[in-house]
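pinging the channel bc i need a second pair of eyes. not urgent but kinda urgent?? the chain im working w is below, pasted from the shared doc
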Amino acid sequence: MKNIVRVVLVLGLMGAAGSAFAEDAAKLYGTKCAMCHGKKGEGNPVMAKAKKMDIGLFAVNDEATLKKTDEELIKATIDGVGTAMPAYKGKIADAEVAPLITYMRSLAAPAAEAPAVEAPVTTRQ
């Protein structure tokens, strides 16, 4: 029940404090997350090798992670994930978590742009 209240509180703060913390989210990601998840969310191969885990488990810009809800990602950040990811409860402010998740989502590789298609040239005489 306590975790549900915390998630609701954090989500509620997203709108109110979003812009204030958005500027700091990249810096926070760089100091707390990039060591394992990589600067661009691709996962850190050195950390994956050290923990003897698949690099995909460290990526946060992948399709599987991006399909998760904000609530799931907030809970993972606050409570940790198994033994691989530590809990950040008490290490970062609850109000910083939502902007951090928003920043993490922004690291997703943009979809490849479709090549421009030119109109067919027709000549009628």
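so The first helix runs from residue 2 to 32. and The CA atoms of residues 43 and 56 lie 7 Å apart. — does that match what u expected or am i reading it wrong
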